[in-house]
Amino acid sequence: MNLKWLALAAIVLLLLGCTQSQNPQNPDDLNSDSNSPGNPDVNVPVDQNQDQNVSLTGFVSVRVVDENQSPVTGALVRLLDANDSQEIAQLVTDQNGFGLFSDFAFLDVNVLVGDQNDSVFESASQQVTVDGNEFVSFVLTEKRWARPPSGSRTTARTVQADDSEFYPLQVQVPKGSILVLTLKVRTFNVAEGGLIFRHPLIGDVYLDANETKTIWFPVNDDVRIESFWPDSNVNKTFLPVYAIPQDWR
Question: Which domain CATH number covers 112?
C-alpha cells in the first residue's frame, strides 16, 4: 500500500516539474524573446515642409474661416491621399469652423475644402503651428457652404444649355427657397471648350460639353445666370430665375 502511494506521489511531482518548465515564472524569462515586436514606434519622423501637403501622423486638424476670419459652419472638408488623390475621409466643420481627422496613421496627404467636382469653395490654405501642433487653416474667398444648411427649403431644377439658349428658358423658385440647380452642357451647338456660367452668388462655373454640375444658392430676388464662351466676356445667353411668392400655385 505504501509503495502505491509513493509511486503516485512521484508521478504528481514529475507532472509539476513539467508544468513549471513550460510556464516560467521569472519576469525576465517572459521578455526574453528576441523576436517579440514590442510596442510600435509612435515617434515617426515627419517632413512638415512638403508642397501644400499636410504631413502628420495620427490626426489632421482643420479650421475654415471666411475673408473676415469668421468661422464657417458646415464646410465640407475632404482628406485625400497625395499620391493617388483617393479620398481617405471627409467631415463637416462645427460651429467654430473646426474639424478633426483622427485615428489615422498616414503621411503625405492633401486637404480639400468643398467638392472637387463642383468647385464649391475657392480657398487658400496655409499650415499654422499652435502650441507645437500643426494644423491647416483655410480662408474662403467666397462665402458658400458645401451643402445647403440642414432644414432649409430647397427647390431642385435641371437645365441644359448650348451657345444660344437654356432649356427650359426660365426657372421659377419660391422666394426664400434655395435653388439646387443641375447644369448640363449639350454636346451640339457648343464650341470646343464648353461654357462658363456666371452669377455673383455662384461665381464662374466651367463645364465641358456633355458635362453636368450641380450648384445651389438662395433665391430672395429675381436673378439671372449668364453663359459665356471660355476666355471670353461675350455673353451668349442667360437663364432668368424668378423669385415667386411662397403661396403661389
Answer: 2.60.40.1140
Is residue 223 in a domain?
yes
Q: What is the pLDDT of residues 120-158, one digit of tens each?
A: 444 556 655 555 556 666 655 443 445 565 567 888 999
Which residues have C-beta within 8 Å of that of residue 10, sequence separation ≥ 6?
none
On whether both 166 and 134 belong to a single domain, the answer is no
Amino acid at 211: E
Please check whether residues 136 and 158 belong to one and the same domain: no
Please indicate, yes or no, whether residues 180 and 113 belong to a single structural domain of this protein. no
Burial pattern 213-222, b for ≥16 Cβ within 10 A else e, equals bbbbbbbeee
Residue 173's domain spans which residues?
Answer: 154-244
Strand positions, DSSP E, 93-209: 98-101, 109-113, 123-130, 133-140, 154-161, 166-167, 171-174, 177-185, 195-199, 203-207
- Whether residue 3 is contained in a domain is answered as no
Task: Render pLDDT for 216-235 as a digit per residue (tens, 0 to 9).
Answer: 888 888 999 999 888 777 88
**Can you name the residues that pair with 63 across neighbouring β-strands?**
98, 137
Distance CA 91, CA 70 (A): 19
Instruction: Read off the C-alpha cell for 111.
Output: 486637404
Which of residues 140, 173, 206 is at a domain's end?
140
Query: 60, 94, 65, 95: which is closest to 78 by C-alpha?
Result: 60
Cell matching residue 6: 509513493
